[in-house]
C-alpha cells in the first residue's frame, strides 16, 4: 500500500511513467473506461475545492469506478470532534483509496499512517499539493517537451501557496532549472524551502518584487492567488491581494513561447483578456489535472491497462 503525501514520494522515473500513462489516456481514453470497475474512491474534503475534488471524481468515473465522500468538514463527524486518524480508519472500511484535503498541514500524513488503503494528499494547509504538481508537470511536458533548461517565474503568494511549494520540490530535480521568485516582501517563499530545496541542491534563484523587469527571461510564468484563508488579518489581505495583475500590456516583453500557468481559482491575477493568448495554459492545466489523476489512481491501486 502506497500513499502520495509529498511529490517527493514519487521518483523522477515514476513521474515519467505517470506522464506516459497520462499521454496514453489522452490518445485513447476509451481503453481506460473499465479499469477500476468495482473500486471506490473516497473524497474527504475539509476545505473548499472545485477542480481538485471534481477532477478526482471525474477521473474515477472515467476509469469505471465509483465515488463517495464529503465536501465540507461541517457535514462530516469532524464537526462532532472526530480525529483525522479515526476518520481514516473508518473510511478504510468503505473505500479502496482516499483523496483528502485539510486545512491543517500534515493531516493527510496522519490519515495515511492510520488508513489501510492509499491516501492522496489533495492539499494540506499552506504546505503541499502534490497532485496539482502532477497536473503542472504534465502541462509543462506537453507545452515544453522537457523539464530541463527552464527559467520558471513563480509570482504572487509564495508564502502560503502550497502549489508553488510542491512545484519547486518537483522541478528542483531536473537539470539547469532556474527560479525567479516574484512576490511582495510579506509573501516571500518560506526560508525552509529555500534552505532544504534550493540551497541544498545548488539551484539558481533570484527574488524580486517586480514582475515586469524579469518577464523577458521567463520560459514559464506561474501566477498564484493570494491565499486569503491563510491570513490572520483581513487588512493585510486587502492590501496585498492585487499586488500582481497580469495584463496583455505586461506581456509585451515576454518570450513568444512563454507558457502562462495558474493552478486556479483566479481572482484578479490574470486579466481575462489573456485567456485567448496562445501562451495561456491554465485551462489546459485543468484538463491535464483530471487525466494525471486517472494515471495516479491506477498506479496506487496497482491497476494496469
Ligand atoms: C489551489 C489550492 O487549492 O491550493 N487550487 C487548486 O487545487 N487548483 C490554488 C489556490 O487555491 O489558490
Instruction: Report the biggest beta sheet as strand number plus sense, adding barrel if it closes.
Output: 5 strands, parallel
Write down the overall mean pLDDT: 97
Instruction: Tell me what portion of residues adopts beta-strand conformation.
Output: 5-15%
SSE string, helices as H and strands as E: HEHEHEHEHEHEHEHEHEH
CA-atom Rg in angstroms: 19 Å
Provide an overview of this structure:
It is a single chain. With 305 residues, this protein is an alpha/beta fold. Helices cover 36% and strands 14% of the residues. It has helices spanning 12-27, 51-62, 84-91, 107-114, 130-144, 162-171, 191-199, 211-214, 234-240, 282-301; strands at residues 40-45, 66-70, 97-102, 119-124, 151-155, 178-182, 205-208, 220-223, 259-261. Helix 6 (162-171) links the parallel strand 5 (151-155) and strand 6 (178-182). It is globular.
